[in-house]
Amino acid sequence: MSNILRRAGPLNDVTELNRTYPALAQIAVETRKRNGKDRRGAFPELTTALTKSAPIVAHGRPYTVDLLGWFDDFSTTGAYDALGSFSRVTTYVNALSVENSVPQLIPAANRGAALKAALQAAEFKRCPGAADDPAPDKSNVWSADEQKILDCREADRATGPKGSP
Hints:
A two-stranded antiparallel sheet has the order 1-2. It has a two-stranded antiparallel ribbon with strand order 3-4. The protein has seven helices and six strands; from the N terminus they run αααββααββββαα. By secondary structure, it is an alpha+beta fold.
């Protein structure tokens, strides 16, 4: 190990290898010719990149609660027993509808339309917090101006009747 760190002779150990790197100030702050062009140091480039990305980060910030909630739900999708964690998933599909509390068979030709009517699809512009029902005081319902800024639609809320605001 000591031969790797320091060995007699030129250019044959890690200590001498570290001396070949440019000084931190040259890389971090100085504008120099790099790869054939004058390029700014890492800190000015980082400052510009962070400044330009601030609106993108700001747009996503209201969704932080939804994202962390998804992480929490995704990480705890099942239960535990003596053998460890498990998850049970069942796909349930039938050809019945219920009208006036009476199950009725949906004709084969109408099943596609019945499925489309039951699904909430093409909801690409959910507002932050739209995975929950609107609060009675509407505190989690964004105003029209806020929806415009966030580029979201209250009609895409994940709960309630399809298309409800």
